[in-house]
């Protein structure tokens, strides 16, 4: 059949001569096979294209889900970091209270999450990990450690509350609030003198504020001095008992007298620029047994 000859006659119109072609049978078979192969190839490519489109759509959805999970993990890590910072602030507050009421801090333990300090940037420490399963596992460990720290802090607070109830008088006489509203321009400790430029030890903190800003007693006590004293200018001293005293220098005008009893939050005078001063401010000192100590260790608000 493939070797037979077939004649093909083509007529343009009845008047013209006809054209005749002679073809072998295998040519028809080849043309048919070619057409069938092209049709089958098109069907195969169409199915392949559909499968590829489906995979591409699935990949796009998977990438979107991964991005959403990544955003959620970042948000979670930031929240966990904020919780860790809040616990650090509570712990610092705990330490200040213990100093104020003379409570032993030897039993206080600071439990940090395994693998790093609670003060570290959690997002920088954990987010670069490529495996999300490991990241989630570390977050669960971190949360477990934070939960443990919170429970221990609750125990510490209960201990402090119990001690405060038994030492209420001592707490009332502890300078725990700011004496004036303003901002600290010179902290406690070594500094460069604003007058000579030489290194000197600053015995208190300088709270910069406008002239006439009210100054309040940070705790109850007795006025032991109210007047002018050398570089302090107009000065007020308060004896809070238990060898604890405070000083307020460069005042514009004290309104209390020696021997007067004051309570926490009571007005004792106004800020000024008297004495050895470069501008209106309050020089605030806290002394323990006559020795200057950092006032910030007592301030709670």
From TrEMBL:
Entry-linked InterPro entries: Cell_wall_metabolism_enzyme, Dup_hybrid_motif, M23ase_b-sheet_dom
Recorded GO MF terms: metalloendopeptidase activity
Coiled-coil ranges from the UniProt annotation: 52-86
Keywords: Coiled coil, Membrane, Transmembrane, Transmembrane helix
SUPFAM superfamilies the record matches: Duplicated hybrid motif (SSF51261)
Top-rank lineage group of the source organism: Bacteria
Domain M23ase beta-sheet core: 201-295
Membrane-spanning ranges: 26-46
Protein name per the record: Peptidase M23
């Amino acid at each position: 059949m493939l070797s037979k000859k077939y004649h093909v006659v083509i007529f343009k119109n009845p008047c013209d001569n006809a054209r005749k072609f002679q073809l072998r049978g295998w040519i028809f078979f080849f043309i048919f096979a070619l057409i069938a192969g092209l049709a089958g190839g098109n069907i195969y490519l169409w199915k392949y294209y559909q499968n590829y489109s489906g995979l591409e759509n699935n990949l796009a959805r998977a990438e979107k889900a991964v991005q959403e999970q990544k955003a959620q993990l970042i948000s979670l890590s930031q929240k966990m970091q904020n919780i860790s910072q809040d616990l650090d602030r509570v712990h610092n507050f705990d330490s200040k209270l213990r100093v104020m009421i003379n409570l032993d801090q030897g039993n206080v333990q600071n439990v940090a999450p395994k693998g790093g300090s609670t003060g570290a940037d959690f997002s920088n420490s954990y987010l670069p990990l490529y495996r999300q399963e490991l990241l989630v596992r570390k977050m669960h460990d971190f949360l477990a450690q934070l939960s443990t720290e919170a429970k221990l802090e609750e125990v510490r607070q209960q201990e402090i509350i119990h001690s405060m109830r038994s030492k209420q008088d001592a707490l009332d006489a502890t300078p725990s609030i700011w004496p004036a509203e303003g901002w600290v321009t010179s902290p406690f400790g070594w500094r460069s003198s604003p007058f000579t430029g030489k290194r000197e030890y600053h015995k208190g903190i300088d709270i910069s504020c406008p002239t006439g800003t009210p100054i309040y007693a940070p705790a109850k006590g007795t006025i032991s001095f109210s007047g002018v004293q050398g570089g302090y200018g107009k000065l007020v001293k308060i004896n809070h008992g238990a060898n604890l005293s405070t000083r307020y220098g460069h005042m514009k005008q004290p309104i209390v007298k020696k021997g007067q009893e004051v309570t926490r939050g009571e007005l004792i005078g106004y800020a000024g620029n008297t004495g050895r001063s470069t501008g209106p401010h309050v020089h605030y000192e806290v002394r323990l047994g006559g020795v200057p100590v950092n006032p910030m260790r007592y301030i709670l608000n």
